[in-house]
Amino acid sequence: MVAVKTxxxxxxxxxxxxxxxxxxxxxxxxxxxxxxxxxxxxQVRRDIMSIGYSGNxxxxxxxxxxxxxxxxxxxDPEGQxxxxxxxxxxxxxxxTYFSGRRPKLAIVAAFDNDHKKFDRVIQGCRCYALDRLxxxxxxxxxxxxxxxVPSGEAQKVSNALVRAGIKGILxxxxxxxxxxxxxxxxxxxxxxTLEKVAYFARKK
Amino acid sequence: MVAVKTxxxxxxxxxxxxxxxxxxxxxxxxxxxxxxxxxxxxQVRRDIMSIGYSGNxxxxxxxxxxxxxxxxxxxDPEGQxxxxxxxxxxxxxxxTYFSGRRPKLAIVAAFDNDHKKFDRVIQGCRCYALDRLxxxxxxxxxxxxxxxVPSGEAQKVSNALVRAGIKGILxxxxxxxxxxxxxxxxxxxxxxTLEKVAYFARKK
DNA sequence: GCCTGTGAAGCTATTCACAGCT
DNA sequence: AGCTGTGAATAGCTTCACAGGC
Lengths: 204, 204
Fold this sequence. Notes:
The structure is a homodimer. Chain A is of the alpha/beta class. Helix content of chain A is 46%, strand content 18%. Chain A has a seven-stranded mixed beta sheet with strand order 5-6-4-3-7-8-9. A two-stranded antiparallel sheet of chain A has the order 1-2. In chain A, helix 1 runs antiparallel to helix 4 and helix 2 (30-37) crosses helix 3 (41-50). The radius of gyration of chain A is 19 Å and the shape is globular. Chain A starts with a helix and ends with a helix. The mean pLDDT of chain A is 96. Chains A and B meet through helix 1, helix 5, strand 8, strand 9 and helix 8 of A and helix 1, helix 5, strand 8, strand 9 and helix 8 of B. Chain A binds a DNA duplex through residues 3, 5-6, 29-31, 39-40, 42-43, 45-46, 48-49, 54-61.
């Protein structure tokens, strides 16, 4: 199993590589990827090593092959499905950002408790009533939940997701959610991050 | 100067403490804060130590005092101002999330190049034409920029922010931006994070 | 000559574990 | 008895530096 931080960087490399591919690049050196990803060349080589891919000392890494190789490490060959809970501005932003971006990973259902949103299709993703969450998550075989509801509802939504059998949660609500240890959870705390930037903008 | 990760956690502790304060709590132990923040008690104590605050072995930490102490480490006494560039769904979500949350840190201007948005006030924040960015950032004394424009425009926007004298950038566009070394930059890469969750949802 | 792959070194961050206090 | 504060130990992550290959 690849380390958490390495997975993050591999995802970034892949995005860069896809752009390079579309620009017609055949090969790339670790120092070039490093600049584009904002890391050191040694870091790039280590990360690529960790998925067992090998470059060529003369030509660097094959762009297409490396994309392929990252895919076979990161992606589920069957594809994975995510559900988004909370169709506010942030939820819609995520649906827009993400729609059709990655073939092996799609947000296939959205949930909200505002009945004006029910059955509407936003960015190719249908919106359901929140109380149908467990039913639909199981029916569609979804295993990732994205929480974009207000803080006060986050734990309740998380519990429902876990009951429905989800395995990973991406939480945008600014509270720590308690989940069983076998669930992977990642928090994106936008307020905290802005405060961090403010602090270092001052101190640097 | 406090370490990057510590600043992040202090911001989280503060949010928890504010909630505790509003619930009438007077004191709190490191192990209680630890559970609520999702870290270890030793971590909490180290972080608090790093800002020079001291608790009491009998009563733990004073809630109000600790909030005060975190504030005097993290906040600029004069207050700091931020500008948001790109008033799409994500931009609006951030304005909503953040409006009036922290007295010492406010988003005071938004920029977009859609003229239908000019002069509209969104969550108490006025929207200006993108080409007035440098002028207004300087006029208002803004020193933090939040980038929520599409990838293709992010570097250009970042350059304008830097020219205008900004000191820190929070970047939501999924590209690494090149900035001078004296600018602090933090990236929030939502696609990358979702891919991380997807990976560990599978592997755990 | 300039690259990759990688053992070893170096750093940073976290946790242990316990003295000291109340 | 149960907490905080903290030196020391540990774990995790990144970079160095160089052998080996083209």
